[in-house]
Amino acid sequence: MRGSQVWGGNVSSAACVHPLMARDPEGNLVSPKLRADQQEVDSLYAQLPTHAEEGKQELDRLFASGHERRDAGQTAEARERFVAAYLLARELTFGSGEAEALTLAATCTLELGELPLGVEQMEGSRKLHAKLGNTEAEAEAQCNLGIAHAALGDLQRAQHAYRQSLRLARHQPLRLTTLCHLGTLLLRRGRAGEAQQVLAQALALALALGDVASEVRVLQRLAATYCPPPPQPRRRTGEAAEAAEAAVAAEAAEAGGAAVEAAEAAEAAERGAADAEKVATEAEALAGEVRQLHGKIPQDSVRDLEEAVAEVAAAEAAAAVVAAAEAAEAAEAAEAELEAEAAEAEAEAEAHDDDRCEGGAWGEQDEAQSASAALRCLQRAEWLAGQAMEDGSAEASLLMQVLRQRRAQHLAMGDADMARECEQRIDTLVTERSE
Asked: Which among 166, 223, 159, 249 has a CA at the least distance from the CA of 361?
């Protein structure tokens, strides 16, 4: 008789129950240990909502504490809270909280003047927002990246970030802020005609939003677009090529990050090749150790070891070759990017020369017309700033900024009397603020 067969009906079911098994009151065969484990798992799952809610409450506390310290000027302490919130949000797999916390931590880092780290953090938050499909938050991150790149002197990347922000943003105040920054950047790059177009869009948006302070600042920047550039030294015709080369060299210096990346990539390629040689040496050493085992272990084991060593060596060598190829490809890509930026810089330099010599902001408008247009912008800005100061919607510092710029404009126009009038008004504002 086959006593192990419980399905034959010849042996009692009780006698065939495994020691780790039992029957429940209904007669079903169960495992007490598995049932206990399942009950423990069910209990833990039941506690998940409670733990998640506690985690969310802690996350809210960290956000509130971070904002409180930032408002109090304790930026470093605020960053610590936002970084803690970021890590907790990651543990909770709370994507939007993770992205928001990293954005706030990056903002604090930038405010602390740690620009490279701030750029790295802000880029991380941008990627998180993009992954979540939050285009407005991604647009805001792009604008912040533009500000950081501009502060680092990387005007090319800053301009690209501002353009990307405008492409994504639908929130009008954010578009206004980005347009103001882009217009200022174009002024820094000497592209006054483009700056005027961008700032004209910003002015129209400020008027539509009723944002008086932004309107004043846009008018100040518009006035700057009409100011003539610093006098350029006269060059002989034969020096034109040298001038273009100098402009390209200046822009290439701004894009020095790409050159650094290219150098680092080339160095990585060299390291990859060295690693490939190192793998071969190590493989030979391993093979030598295996050879020493001949006669000490069975021959079959020796052959197995030799095959294993050969496979590992081949895999490592292939990986090193691939790494070297990828590094070389990265170096070529970085070099191509640098060449493209240099070509763009050369085109911009030529366009700027055309503006000065054949028309545009510095050609078609003579100095008197430009000065008059700048003055009209500043007069409008002054009136708006005065009205805003009276109704309490702006500080006196805004009006003082406009008066200082208007004084400089009058001095540039040779109008000493109007410049003194601006100085008197500035002195009056300073006295009123000190009382």
From this structure: 223
